[in-house]
């Protein structure tokens, strides 16, 4: 789950447990810089996703799904 505004981006990594309930694995947020404030809404949402999942995309951390 990701969200973005004119001031910040944020994400929550969710996973279903063995009983089918959705659980939060981690939260992450940060302020956006002045250049990023000019991004269109869909790019801000992508910025939020890239920010949250960068460690997984770069292979810096192993994880099981």
UniProtKB/TrEMBL annotation:
It comes from the Eukaryota. InterPro entries: DNA/RNA_pol_sf, RT_RNaseH_2. It holds the Pfam family RT_RNaseH_2. Residues 1-63 form the Reverse transcriptase/retrotransposon-derived protein RNase H-like domain. This is Reverse transcriptase/retrotransposon-derived protein RNase H-like domain-containing protein. It comes from Phytophthora rubi.
């Amino acid at each position: 789950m990701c969200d973005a505004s004119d001031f910040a981006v944020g994400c929550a990594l969710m996973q279903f447990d063995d009983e089918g309930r959705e659980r939060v694995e981690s939260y992450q947020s940060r302020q956006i810089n002045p250049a990023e404030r000019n991004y269109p809404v869909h790019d801000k949402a992508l910025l939020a996703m890239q920010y949250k999942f960068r460690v997984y995309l770069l292979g810096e951390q192993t994880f099981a799904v």
